[in-house]
Amino acid sequence: MPARLRLRQLEALECVAETGSMTRAAEGLGISQPAVSRLLSDLASEVGFQLFDRRNGRLIPTQEARFLLPDIHRLLEMLDHIGEVSRHLNDRKAGHLRIACLPGFATSHLPGVLARFLAERPGVTATIEPDRPERILEWIVGEQYDFAITDSFDAHPAVTSETISVRSVCVMPEDHPLLAREVITPADLADQRLIHTRRDSAFFRELNEVFLSEGVEINSIVETRQFTAACELVLRRVGLSIISELDAAGYAGRGLAFRAFAPAVPHRLALVRPLHKHPSMITLEFMEIFRDSLRAFELATGPAQGGGTAPP
């Protein structure tokens, strides 16, 4: 079996074929003329046929060499492309992101962050897949996605996660009388119809406990899994809602406004990725940028914004 051909031999063959000269090929390759001659001699020995004829002082590829040259050209182009892509990957300018998220994030906070990220990285592409938390966890455990945004959950041995507590606010039509208050309490909502998350959700259980501790019963009108659906219903004056400030901010100035809600009922998010899958540099960079985008909404960072404009 012939020895494996070396890349430098193929480069020498192509360069001499293009220039017709050992001297010019040596200059193009940045090596000595004897080195080019040795590369071609070794290559001819390995392939078992002559590579060049000399005519009128010029080296002309033999018929066999001409047959090889198109494949050699494609191979060298492919290697150049691989090198370029590798540089882009190293510079975080190329790659593909696979993101799973809660349905509300697919239409609220995530698109803006992702759009800015992609605008600065023309070689990066992305997939967004919204679904319920149970399915998202299955995907991450199965390493089908690089990164996910979901509700917080009990620890899982195949997942690494960070829990973030996002402030919750009371969202209402922008002409509602309760906007006169800086902070909304359960007592303020005793006579208001409320749109809220499903009764089996951790967020609703905590919200309900807060209301009961204040001696107020939630006046339920609609249950929904998604905060964005709650916003749409509030916009249509079905009732008011206690939701994540992340979702409320997306509706500020669009007919809705919001005020801080107390006692605090945080919406606990989990940023997760597969534990045993090595993350790409693009994934780690996007996770860091997305994490930073949440800091203005964290419970510990201060009071919620209100009125008709979203926080910066």
UniProtKB/TrEMBL annotation:
<dbReference type="InterPro" id="IPR005119">
    <property type="entry name" value="LysR_subst-bd"/>
</dbReference>
<keyword id="KW-0805">Transcription regulation</keyword>
<keyword id="KW-0804">Transcription</keyword>
<dbReference type="GO" id="GO:0009089">
    <property type="term" value="P:lysine biosynthetic process via diaminopimelate"/>
</dbReference>
<dbReference type="InterPro" id="IPR036388">
    <property type="entry name" value="WH-like_DNA-bd_sf"/>
</dbReference>
<dbReference type="GO" id="GO:0043565">
    <property type="term" value="F:sequence-specific DNA binding"/>
</dbReference>
<feature type="domain" description="HTH lysR-type">
    <location>
        <begin position="5"/>
        <end position="62"/>
    </location>
</feature>
<dbReference type="GO" id="GO:0003700">
    <property type="term" value="F:DNA-binding transcription factor activity"/>
</dbReference>
<protein>
    <submittedName>
        <fullName>DNA-binding transcriptional regulator, LysR family</fullName>
    </submittedName>
</protein>
<dbReference type="Pfam" id="PF03466">
    <property type="entry name" value="LysR_substrate"/>
</dbReference>
<dbReference type="Pfam" id="PF00126">
    <property type="entry name" value="HTH_1"/>
</dbReference>
<dbReference type="InterPro" id="IPR036390">
    <property type="entry name" value="WH_DNA-bd_sf"/>
</dbReference>
<dbReference type="GO" id="GO:0010628">
    <property type="term" value="P:positive regulation of gene expression"/>
</dbReference>
<comment type="similarity">
    <text>Belongs to the LysR transcriptional regulatory family.</text>
</comment>
<keyword id="KW-0238">DNA-binding</keyword>
<dbReference type="InterPro" id="IPR000847">
    <property type="entry name" value="LysR_HTH_N"/>
</dbReference>
